[in-house]
Specification:
This protein is of the alpha/beta class. It has two domains: about 140 residues, Response regulator (Rossmann fold), CATH 3.40.50; about 70 residues, Arc Repressor Mutant, subunit A, CATH 1.10.10.10. It contains ten helices and nine strands. Strands 4-3-5-8-9 form a five-stranded parallel sheet, with helices on both faces. α7 packs across α9 and α8 crosses α9. The chain is globular.
Length: about 230
Amino acid sequence: MSESETTQNGTHKKLKILLVEDHPMFREHLAQLIGRDLGMSVCGEADNIQDAMNLIQEKAPDIAIVDISLKGSSGLELIKDIRARGAKVDVLVLSMHEEELYAERALRAGAKGYITKNEASSDIIEAIRSVMNGEIYASRKVTAKLLERMTHKNASPELNGLELLADRELEVFQMLGRGKSTREIAKELNLGESTVETYRSRIKDKLQLRSAAELYLRAGQWVRDHGS
């Protein structure tokens, strides 16, 4: 999709941007940033998957800017839902989370770009324009990592720590780190408690943890270190 379109009367049609972010203050800042660009406008805001999908259907945005952490679920799940439903909207992930852990996951899920919130405002606008011009936006570090894996297809990937966890397992790990019980996680993610217990068991095995206490300690420390 080109960066802008021209209407029948010769005027330029603004790109419609949907903001999916659960922090109201940052959402407001981002809306102001986009509003200063004459070629873009915010067509809607959401802080959870259901509202985001409803707005995508109602507003038909050109691009959705999505955070990883959303109310009740993960932005990764939203990206997968968008692709599964065939929605014609490109996704740029803008998140506080470190790109080493999440960028590749987001791109695999179907996002067209990943940028962290600590980047300059001009870089965020550049990322939006790149995605709207049909390009993939990622840092040099992420690009190098992806190319390395592509050129060593037969090599066993060297995965350590949390990179071993599947997307849903990582989401459960984060919620455990925030002190959520199995019942609370099941309710928030709309899963059975036995399913959450299965995820917990898999996480323990992959991280080579011996007990539930070790799991909670590891998860809690990671959340404290990364502000998740």
